[in-house]
Amino acid sequence: MSKPIETDETCNTGRRNLMKATGLAVAAMGMAPMAGTTQAFAQTSTWDKVFPKSDNVDHQKVSFRNRYGITLAGDLYLPKNRGTAPLAALVISGPFGAVKEQSSGLYAQTMAERGFAALAFDPSYTGESGGEPRNVASPDINTEDFSAAVDYIGLQSYVDRERIGVIGICGWGGMALNAVAVDKRVKAVVASTMYDMTRVMSKGYNDSVTLEQRTQALEQMSRQRWQDAEKGSPAYQPPYNDLKGGEAQFLIDYHDYYRTPRGYHARAVNSGNAWTQTTPLSFMNMPILTYIAEISPRPVMFVHGGKAHSRYFSETAFAAAAEPKELVIIPDANHTDLYDRADKIPFDRIAAFFNQHLA
Questions:
Q1: What is the mean pLDDT of residues 254-263?
Q2: E strand map for 122-212
Q3: Which of 247, 303, 323, 345 is the most exposed, fewest CB within 10 Å of its CB?
């Protein structure tokens, strides 16, 4: 299964800020306005997703705690005609800076239509999940969030806990791979349009950041800690996915998802909110894919757009993973097409992968 498969099947300004966090321009962040929100959100009871509700799926709001005591909020999707036999289950999160009302919820609902119990959740410190301050990320805690979701779904009477898989999207694709490497309860994993956030934050896009740039970025963020400590609250990066003109195409693609009716959600970091300025610190020296080969002998599938600027993340991770593994390239898809384009996301192939390996 290790041969990459070419198929026709069917995480802006925020990303610019992410690149700044890994290079010389990070120094400018010290003067950036505070754009993040500081309060947690209560779970809504109304349907506030960016995709329509399926008539073939039952939906309910759930919550559970991770190993660090943070309460996570989730949307649980179950097939209406599910019978009485225990179901195979999937836990799903991402993209980096998104909420469960966006891509992960769409993936979860679509997989529930195909017979799975599917749980989409907001990572710690974001969306409707708990944790203070708001809009901060951690390679450790966010990896733990996946295992906490496995804890929850495996305790449900309608789930066969020996048939649990994971889907991670964009930056949470890397987190999912890291979680599955250590969490042997998970039997199969799919990383869709993945980023390795520790790699991009520590080395920049295409590993272009020099040691001098990295040192300057760390110097700036280290000193920002004093400012945050004096103030008693963190400073935030500028609003994500605002366009000023002249951006690279992939930044325009992020804007077209997060800042238009196609994918905008008020709680999403990427929809005009922002990460804390010091968020990259914990990513800068903690490579999350060091043990990716230890996912084996459980199978991993990478799905990526052939035109995506981020394709190299999946290709590198695929090369490092051990068998069984599969790389599915969607030739005419860019990075964000695999967030929500049903004609490009290979849902049937993903379902077949899990049906085979969660049998």
A1: 98
A2: 159-169, 188-192
A3: 323
- Cis (ω within 30 of 0) for the bond into 261? no
Question: If you write DSSP's letter for every residue of 268-280 in order, what string do you get?
Answer: -TTTT---BTTGG
Three-class SS string for 296-324?
CCCCEEEEEECCCCCHHHHHHHHHHCCCC
pLDDT tens digits, one per residue of 26-43:
322 333 333 444 345 567
Q: What value, to the nearest 5°, has the Cα angle with vertex 189 and ends 107 and 131?
A: 70
- Which pLDDT does position 14 carry in this prediction? 40
Q: Look up residue 175 and give its two tokens.
A: 């987190």
Exposed/middle/buried for residue 59 (C-beta within 10 Å: 0-12, 13-18, 19+): middle
- Cβ-based neighbours of 117, under 8 Å, separated by 6 or more: 76, 77, 78, 79, 82, 87, 88, 89, 90, 153, 156, 158, 159
Question: What is the arithmetic mean of pLDDT over 147-162?
Answer: 98
Q: What is the DSSP code string of 53-119?
A: PPTTEEEEEEEEE-TTSPEEEEEEEEETT--SSPEEEEEEE-STT--TTSHHHHHHHHHHHTT-EEE
Q: What is the pLDDT of residue 19?
A: 46
Amino acid at 130: G
SS3 172: helix
pLDDT at 9: 39
337 has pLDDT over 90: yes
Q: What pTM value is reported for the model?
A: 0.90
Q: How far apart are CA 222 and CA 211, in angstroms?
A: 16
